[in-house]
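Lecture notes, unit on protein representations.

Consider one protein chain, 359 amino acids long.
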Amino acid sequence: MTTLKSSAQNDPPFDPSAAAELLLQRRKILVTAHVNPDGDALGSLCALARICLGLGKEVRLVCQSEVPDFLSWVELPCPLYSGYAELGGWIPDLAVFLDCGRPERAGTDGKELARGNVPPAWGRVDILNIDHHGDNPRFGLVNFVEEKAGATAELVGLLAERLGLALSGPLGENIYLGLSADSGNFSFSSATPNLFSMAARIVRNGLKVEEFIAKSENNWSPGRMRLWGELLLHLRLFAEGRVVSVLITNDMLARYHCKPGDLEGLVSFVRHLRSVDVSLLVRERGEGSKISLRSMGGARSVNVQRVAAHLGGGGHRSAAAAELPLPPAAAEKAVLEILLPAVEEFSAATLDEIGDSAL
């Protein structure tokens, strides 16, 4: 394929031309996404691989953590490797980072590749960076980074259409997975008209929504249901109900034979409490904790990305995360010391009046 064309009905809101040209120029393409992939990361990973295969490229997928159980139904277009060492003598001439707000989100190998530290036989490997995190440092040769995109999969979908590939079949399902995952099944502020329009194109191209939901949502284990029951029973409210917090230990996961992926969606689910502005999930991870924050979204919402950034993390205005070298209870306390003043100030001021003093 040597020419570019678009199958989209309307002009795309973001321009994927530079990313498309770079893909066309290269032959052996390594595709990676962030560790502990969510639906947007895995959907984008699979979709980008299908695009490359459709263009006749050689592709290798790398993710430094396994596919979580809640996404085990996703059909991979080719084998998934856990690190560059498993690639043997295969040498890429382009690496595509997907949904990585920072290169280290792709794991140790991704961080080193972004620094130019690659196996000696590789030589130089250019990077195509496709992402929708506002704090992305633009570490690629080409950076298709658009904060206003509802999901990285939206950008990958535009790239596919720019290359003349219809969003149908497995490719369409992969993109739809990313769109729905990062928009809370089209309920968050990230569900923009452009995102809905792309989803509609996929449905028009044959996706059966009821079959997609049956695979992606109706697959809970009894252990997962019971774990959520215990966690919901013991959730705690702060700031007169404007903040809800949930703590999870490894012992709790083990008690119900669950894995971290079984917590997917919980931090958003507890926002259903009518008084809540921000939800906080604190999960024990190794010798520390991972914290996840969600706000209600939209322009008039608490900016949880600021809170996460203050703790060394990042993300979006209404969805952010960080890792702390503290056990869950201490990590919760550290987050609340920053979060509660921000929520109190938010409740008494307009968004324009909320400044960094709250952090």
